Amino acid sequence: MGVPLFDTSTPLHPLRDELRAAVARVLDSERYILGPEVEAFESEFADHCGADHAVGVANGTEAITIALRAMGVGPGDEVVVPSFTFYASAEAIPPTGATPVFCDIDPETYCITADTVRAALTPRTRAVMAVHLFGNMAPVAEIEALGVPVLEDAAQAAGSLAGEARAGALGSAATFSFFPSKNLGCFGDGGMITTSDEAIAERARTLRFHGSRDKVSYQQLGYNSRLDELQAAILRVQLPHLDRWAQGRREAALHYEHAGLGELVALPRPTDGASPAWHLYVVGHPQVDRLEAALSAADIGYKAYYRTPVHLQEPMRAWGAGAELPATERAAARHLAIPMSPVLTREQVAEVAAAARAAA
Length: 360
Ligand SMILES: Cc1ncc(COP(=O)(O)O)c(C=O)c1O
Known about the structure:
36% of the residues lie in helices and 14% in strands.
């Protein structure tokens, strides 16, 4: 029958009337930028994460640049970042004036660790970007114990937990993307910064608004980077369902385990104490071409997201050249995302496992 790589439409189907009503509400209000929907969603999202403040911005990439600047990162500073991540995690650093310094990952969790970060620290390190990759949780407290501030890149981790705490409430600040395919997605681009540091929140609020409080006087060079009212209204309809969807993702991962997939491929390992809302379910295989061919033959969706790690991408060469990241290069060569969604069924998982068996 085939299984798609992800399914964003089935979970939204029962919400269609509410979503239409939310869009109509914004149309009727004739407020489109920084109005009551954004304000309400910021407050609801901050509560959900367990952070004191949330600042809506235009996308997850600008969320990182703005959050880093709000944390005081600037020219001459270094920011430690994994290379096995979406390109934007590193791309967002140079616009602050700082430079990315690439660190390695744990081969089983795909996240950075205190040890891989320690190897990249220098006297110029001003922050570490802990990417909660694929929805797994980077060990923020262990990294902070090295004495450096942490920005969580939680673009892929809405709904994920580390113990009782949620992504977005662990570091000095955290950033989210609401790109439509994310765990919590809007109908365009959108992003968020969360923090419990009042001063960081205030600077981020100003930076997203041209470096101004009132658009009359300007304190610093900023950005035009706002979450808009329509997207905020759409996200408000979905937020109450995020935890249920996250649970669906966890159950799908359990189905994979129970289907014996771990005998055929390397399954992703949650970091200690984490309960990931798997955004992508990424497995490892020594002959990944064979796995791709077997899935393809069975009409199963798959994708190699980061076959070339970020430090080897052309625009990053100035900072990535010479970096020795063996776990990153191995993960880049062997990883493959297989179907994952909040509504992935046991039967679909069995179909994926049967196809993977053909590559064993
Ligand atoms: C890990 C990570 N960081 C940052 C981003 C950037 O988010 P956006 O696409 O909203 O700019 C993404 C989204 O794709 C991501 O996956």
